Automatic annotation (TrEMBL), chains A, B:
It comes from the Eukaryota. This is BZIP domain-containing protein. One of its GO terms (biological process) is DNA-templated transcription. Belongs to the bZIP family. C/EBP subfamily. One of its GO terms (molecular function) is DNA-binding transcription factor activity, RNA polymerase II-specific. GO terms for cellular component: nucleus. Residues 1-49 are annotated as: Disordered. Residues 18-81 form the BZIP domain. Pfam families: bZIP_2. The keyword Membrane does not apply. It is found in: Nucleus. InterPro entries: bZIP (IPR004827), bZIP_sf (IPR046347), C/EBP (IPR031106). Signal peptide: none annotated. It comes from Rhamnusium bicolor.
Amino acid sequence: MPRRGRVKKEGPESGEDSDEYRKRRDRNNLAVKRSRVKSKQKTQETVNRVSELRNENTVLEEKVKTLTKELGFLKELFLAHASNNVDASKFEGVNFQKLFEDNSSAGTSNDNINNTS
Amino acid sequence: MPRRGRVKKEGPESGEDSDEYRKRRDRNNLAVKRSRVKSKQKTQETVNRVSELRNENTVLEEKVKTLTKELGFLKELFLAHASNNVDASKFEGVNFQKLFEDNSSAGTSNDNINNTS
DNA sequence: TTTAATTGCGCAATAT
DNA sequence: GATATTGCGCAATTAA
């Protein structure tokens, strides 16, 4: 990136008579203001975006927690029932072992159902 | 917030001899640079934070999706079994109706178990 | 080429 | 008193 900024402090070097020069300076100064306002807005929006995302994140984490609990509850229910007096045939070959393994990252593939009959 | 920035273009007004003045100016210019570097770093970190949060968010959303599917699968399993030929007594008073209502936002309160026997 | 937008830099007022 | 921030203007560069 090439050099920028003032190096010398000469007078209106880029221009002609002070008249046109000033017009150009004034216009540029306005452009600079616009640009800086825009820049600050963007920064602020980014900061706000962080807040939004943190909120969404919290909600999602709670949701995961809740779902995990529900799932755990159902699994316990199943297992309790199964270990006590299961009539496994009624579930038509559902492989509970596999179903209740740690499959947090698994989809709902029907690998859990093997027609063992 | 009060006025800032140059208003006049006088010479070393805040100071004394050009010597001490320049020293002060130079030190301030360095401070300005440090301050602006820091500012840009902070902005960049905020931008990065947004990326991180978006990633976490995606992961969490997938997790919710997976868990929801698993839960749905178990519920269907339950219901299918229940509607076909349930021997509900084996579940010792579990209220399937309530259990399978939309309780995404509910905890794992044992309200689902009512000793109806 | 002309004009607007960005950006590095310095000044001075102000904030800490 | 010294450093840190910040509004503002200048000029160089870049983008339209």
